[in-house]
Design a protein that fits this description.
Length: about 270
């Protein structure tokens, strides 16, 4: 009696392509994380396991100063964008006015325009109006693209909301302001928080726009990292990069969790 033959394991080209693609994207990150624990200051050779590089950059005054500047820029830009971006999304979704389509297209342009174009145009504009470069010019430049991200996320939430909620609240005696604050904003709050978290990560990560609009004494964290890796990449920069990636991933996970819970609650 002939023994049943085993089916050979077949690997589709789609699975192979996916493995290669994810390996190409994430293998350098794994290597960077591995060498952040390297005791040797030279990344070309392994000298043993250590956590000293993490301790070193946490005690580095220049890194902490740059981190402070980045946080100031991100919080200010996101705070301004949360207010203006939400109002812009509500206005575009709920009201009709001349030139609405043109304004809507211009509002979302920072989503598709390259960062270098935004950086150069912002620098030229600041030079024309004779505004000296400082930390606040970085805030203004970051607000431009953060505004579009917040407005885009909030607008996607508005599409799925009942457009007659505010009308029903006003029929029950609420003023337009009360219907906005007490009815519409609570429904939009998960999208506002998600948009703000996304904008915060993008602001902390930005290098091009910050380097073009920064004045003397204003140095964000990406600018400080770039100034240190011109000659060589030290293990303390590897450690800092790992911390930034973990933090960014945690913020993105929080934003996605908020969005998922909001969507699940809406469908119930």
């Amino acid at each position: 009696m002939q023994a049943p033959s085993k089916n050979p394991i077949r690997i589709s080209w789609q699975a192979l392509f996916s493995v290669l693609m994810f390996g190409f994207m994430y293998l350098p990150i794994l290597v960077l994380g591995f060498y952040s624990f390297n005791q040797s200051p030279n990344s070309a050779q392994w000298g043993g396991f250590t956590l000293s590089w993490y301790v070193k950059f946490f005690n580095d005054s220049r890194i902490l100063s740059a981190l402070s500047d980045s946080l100031k820029v991100a919080f200010c830009a996101v705070g301004i964008s949360a207010i203006i971006g939400t109002l812009m999304a509500v206005g575009l979704a709920r009201y009709k006015f001349p030139g609405k389509q043109l304004y809507q297209g211009v509002s979302y342009l920072p989503l598709i325009i390259p960062d270098i174009a935004i950086a150069v145009s912002t620098l030229v504009f600041l030079a024309v109006i004779a505004v000296p470069l400082s930390l606040w010019t970085i805030v203004a430049a970051h607000t431009v693209f953060c505004l579009s991200y917040v407005a885009f996320v909030v607008s996607t939430r508005l599409v799925n909301l009942n457009p007659h909620l505010e009308e029903a609240a006003q029929d029950l005696g609420a003023t337009p302001y009360q219907s906005l604050v007490m009815v519409l904003l609570p429904e939009l709050m998960p999208a506002i928080v998600s948009g703000c978290l996304l904008a915060f990560v993008l602001s902390m990560d930005d290098f091009l726009i910050s380097s073009f609009t920064a004045g003397g004494g204003a140095t964000t964290l990406p600018m400080e990292i770039f100034s240190r890796i011109r000659t060589s990449v030290k293990p303390d920069i590897n450690a800092l990069s790992v911390v930034l990636m973990v933090t960014s991933g945690a913020v993105a996970l929080i934003a996605e969790t908020i969005r998922y819970r909001s969507e699940k609650k809406r469908l119930q």
